[in-house]
User: What shape does this take?
Amino acid sequence: MASLDSARDERVGDDRTRRADVRIVAATNRDLKKAVAAGRFREDLFYRLNVFPIQVPPLRDRMDDIPLLAKHFVELSARELKCAQPRLTRAAVAKLQNYDWPSNVRELRNVIERGLILARGGALDFDVPLTGQSAGPVQPSPRTDASTSHVAPSKFLTEAELERLERDNLLRVLEAAHWKIKGPDGAAELLGVKPTTLLSRIEKWGLKKPEPGSS
Assistant: This one.
């Protein structure tokens, strides 16, 4: 909210009234209309502030803004901390976009600054949950129905299916990176893992770079 107002002021011990033009900018995450109706916020103050309301959606509703915000905060924090600017990888940005940011942009900046301190000039990584939700109570596992003696239906993958998905995903990443293992835009960076970890997985699945000209 923003409002323009005029104010009068008399200094202590002075008999002169001074006039000042004042601009008030107020921000809140509360619904002030509901607070006024419930008697928790002064109605007259609400209408004095509510001249030009600006509604800003929470960060979780504008995930497409995160790459630009992250880049800005990385550059800003690097200047403020006077340290080398680390690499902001696509894997790191994807991790940021898989979190719902209950504390909004301030939390995003804090997470990025913490990651920058720990990166020491290398690739950035962030300590946020990978589930797409903020940390919360653990959901109970499917329970066995005592009357029918069977597990409630749920979607799951077998171990063989999980391994096939892992192998297929690894192959797609290698192809996207043109079989570049490390460095900027390398497969390890795209996956968000160490090059040594990636090499171990390549060896595990027996993946080999196609010969030139092969289909």
